[in-house]
Automatic annotation (TrEMBL), chains A, B:
Protein name in the entry: LacI family DNA-binding transcriptional regulator
Alphabetical keyword list: DNA-binding, Repressor, Transcription, Transcription regulation
SMART domains the record matches: HTH_LACI
Organism name: Furfurilactobacillus rossiae
SUPFAM superfamilies according to UniProt: lambda repressor-like DNA-binding domains, Periplasmic binding protein-like I
One MF annotation (Gene Ontology) recorded for this entry: DNA-binding transcription factor activity
Protein's UniProt keywords contain Transcription: yes
Span of domain HTH lacI-type: 5-59
InterPro entries: HTH_LacI, Lambda_DNA-bd_dom_sf, Peripla_BP/Lac1_sug-bd_dom, Peripla_BP_I
Residue ranges that the Swiss-Prot or TrEMBL entry lists as coiled coil: none
Keyword hit for DNA-binding: yes
DNA sequence: CTTGTATATGAAATCGATTTCATAAAGGCG
DNA sequence: CGCCTTTATGAAATCGATTTCATATACAAG
C-alpha cells in the first residue's frame, strides 16, 4: 500500500492542529470560514479520506452489521439479504454475510467473529441450538428472522417472522380443494419453521376430515442429500397424489425425482415462492413469503433497537400470500 | 453495550503488563510457562476476546475483503459469492458484498467505502466505466471477475474470466444443429460480456453460412425492464424459431413472454446454467459457467497478490460446459 | 481602561491493541 | 567471584481519528 493520507498531513498542509481538521469534518460551526477553506483545500489536494477504522475505534460504532443465515444459495435468503443490504446501504451501513449451512458450530464461530469485529448488531436466522445468546454477544443487539429463537433468553430479542402455520394450512387446503385425496409432506426438521409448517399441514388435513398418518410425513435434513429417496418412498409406498414441500430446496429435489421417474401426475405445494415456478409443467401451489420485506424490516428493527436499547421487545409477523397456479 | 474486556484488564488480573498479555497471544515462546498460565486463566475468567478493530488499526490489515457485483439476486453472482465466502472463511477473512445494479455511481461509492474501511482487497465485477482504477483504490489489490476491466490501467490487474465467445459459439452452434433456421439474440450491452457473447453468436451463424442480420439482435439493459417487448418484437416480426439469451435473467423474461403469448415452439439457448432449467417445458441449451469456482479462484488470486504484490499479473480463463437438453 | 464573554484554536488524553527498546534476573563459564 | 549471554518482562510509542480542557485573541459593556 502507498502510505495513507492521515489527518496529521492535512493539519500540516493547512497549518492547523489535527483537532481543527477533525472539527472541520464533525463540527464545522466551531471553525472559522477561512480555516475551513484551507483545510478543505488540503483534503482535496491530498485526496484525504478519514480512516473508518480509526473512527470506529474512537466512536465505538463500526457502521457494520452481520447477517447470519444458513445459505445465500437458497433464493429465499438471497432475497432477504438483498433487502437488508439495500436498507443498510441507505443508512451508511455495511453488511457482512455469514453462511452457517445449518451447522451450529459455524454459527457460533461467525457470531464470535462479528463480536470481535464489533459489529453494531446481528440479524440472525439461527439454527436454534444455542442456550444463551446473551452471553455469546455481550449486549450486542440481535434481531431474529425466519426462525423463532430457542433457549432460555430467547424472549429477550426482537423477531421478524412469518406465519408458517397459516401459510402451510392455506397451501394444503388449496391442494385438497383442487382434488387431492392423499397429501403427503416433506419438511425440514431444522429450526422452528419445519414444525410450524407441519402443524399447518396437519390442521388442513383435519379440517377436511382427512386422517393424519405418520408415514405420510418425511423429515428432510434441509441439505438435500436424502430428499430424493424420501420423496420416492412417499410416492411409491403411499401412492399419494399430492405433496407438500416445506421449502424451495425440497421442491427442487422432488421435481428431480418426478422427472427421473417420469411421474407426470402429482399435485405440488411448497412453502416459499420462486419466479421459475411459473414455467414448470406442474401447476405449483406456493406460499409466497415477502423475503425482501423481511430483510428491510429486520434492519429497521435493528436500527430502532440501536437508537433505543431499552424499548420493549417487538415481534413482527409478516403476511404470506398463497399463489395458485 | 456492556463494557468490553480489554487487554488492560487481563494484564491487571494476571498482574503483568499489557505487553506480556499481547505476547501470550502472538509470541508465546517469549513468555514463561507460569505467566502464560496466569494470563490464560484471566482470559477465560473474564471471557476476553481481542478487539479486531484495534488489531486492524495496529497491523494495517483488516482481514476483510470487498466483493462488488451487480446483484446477488442473479443466481450466477450468488454462487460466485458463495465460492468467495467459503474460501475466505477458511482463511479467516470476512466478506462485504456490494450490489451495484450496474450503476457506476454506486460502484464508485462502494469502492470508496471499501477503501475507507481499509479492506485488504476487492473482487470486482465492474460496470466498466471507470477510467482509472488505480487512483480510486490507492494501491489496494483488485481482482476482476466476470467482466474485463476497461480503462487505461486495466491491464495492471489480475482477472478471472470465462471464455464468453467460445461458450456462446457452442450454444448457438448447438441450436442450429438441432434444426434452428433463424436464430435471434438478446444480450446485455453492459460490460464486456455482452459484446463477447454476441461475437460468439455471430461466428456460429457465419460458420453455418447463416446471414447476420442486425435486426435479429436486441440489446437489453440487463435490468429486465424492456426484455419482454424486445423479445416479443424479435419473435413476431422476425419469425425466428430460436433465441439465444445472453444471461439467465434475460431467459427468465423470455420465458414469461412465451408463456403469456402461448408460444409453445421455440428453441432456446442461454449463457449461464441454472438447476431449474431441467424442469421447463422447453429443452433449454445452456452454457454452464463454474461460478463457484470463479469465486474461489478469484479469492486465491487475491491472496496470492497480497502475499506477493510484485508478482506478474495473471489472467485466468475458466472453462464453460455446454448443457444440451 | 478594565472586566467579561464569545470565538477560534491547540495540547494532550483516549480508544485497544502491538512492538521496540531498555532492563532486571538467571544461568554459564573461566 | 566477576563477566557475559539468555530469558522474561515492562514502559512508552504507535496506529488515525475525536474530544475535553485550557488558552489566546477580539470585541462589547461598564
Amino acid at each position: 500500500m502507498s502510505k495513507q493520507v492521515t489527518i496529521k498531513q492535512i493539519a500540516q498542509y493547512a497549518g492547523v492542529s489535527e483537532a481543527t481538521v477533525s472539527r472541520v469534518l464533525n463540527q464545522p460551526e466551531l471553525v472559522s470560514k477561512q480555516t475551513i477553506q484551507k483545510v478543505k483545500d488540503g483534503m482535496d489536494e491530498l485526496q484525504y479520506r478519514p480512516s473508518a477504522l480509526a473512527q470506529s475505534m474512537r466512536n465505538h460504532t463500526t457502521k457494520t452489521i452481520g447477517v447470519v443465515i444458513s445459505n445465500v444459495l437458497n433464493p429465499f435468503f438471497t432475497t432477504l439479504v438483498r433487502g437488508i443490504e439495500d436498507a443498510a446501504t441507505k443508512r451508511g451501513y455495511s453488511v457482512i454475510v455469514c453462511n452457517t449451512d445449518e451447522n451450529p458450530d459455524k454459527e457460533q464461530r461467525y457470531i464470535n467473529m462479528l463480536v470481535d469485529h464489533q459489529a453494531d448488531g446481528i440479524i440472525l436466522a439461527s439454527t436454534g441450538n444455542h442456550a444463551n445468546y446473551h452471553s455469546m454477544v455481550n449486549d450486542m443487539p440481535l434481531v431474529f428472522i425466519d426462525r423463532m429463537p430457542q433457549g432460555k433468553d430467547a424472549n429477550l430479542y426482537d423477531t421478524v417472522l412469518v406465519d408458517n402455520e397459516k401459510g402451510s394450512f392455506n397451501a394444503v387446503d388449496a391442494l385438497i380443494k383442487q382434488g387431492a385425496t392423499r397429501v403427503n409432506a416433506i419438511v425440514s426438521p431444522v429450526a422452528t419453521t419445519g414444525t410450524e409448517r407441519l402443524n399447518g399441514f396437519r390442521k388442513a388435513l383435519t379440517a377436511h376430515d382427512f386422517p393424519i398418518r405418520e408415514q405420510d410425513i418425511a423429515l428432510d435434513d434441509y441439505l438435500g442429500q436424502h430428499t430424493a429417496e424420501l420423496a420416492l418412498n412417499l410416492i411409491q409406498t403411499n401412492q399419494c397424489d399430492a405433496l407438500f414441500c416445506g421449502n424451495n430446496v425440497i421442491l427442487m429435489n422432488v421435481l428431480k425425482v418426478l422427472k427421473e421417474w417420469q411421474i407426470g401426475d402429482m399435485k405440488l405445494a411448497v412453502f416459499d415462492d420462486q419466479p421459475w415456478f411459473d414455467f414448470v409443467q406442474y401447476p405449483i401451489i406456493s406460499v409466497d413469503q415477502p423475503a425482501y420485506l423481511i430483510g428491510t424490516k429486520a434492519f429497521i428493527t435493528l436500527m430502532d433497537r440501536l437508537a433505543n436499547p431499552d424499548r420493549p421487545v417487538t415481534h413482527d409477523i409478516v403476511r404470506t400470500k398463497l399463489v395458485i397456479r
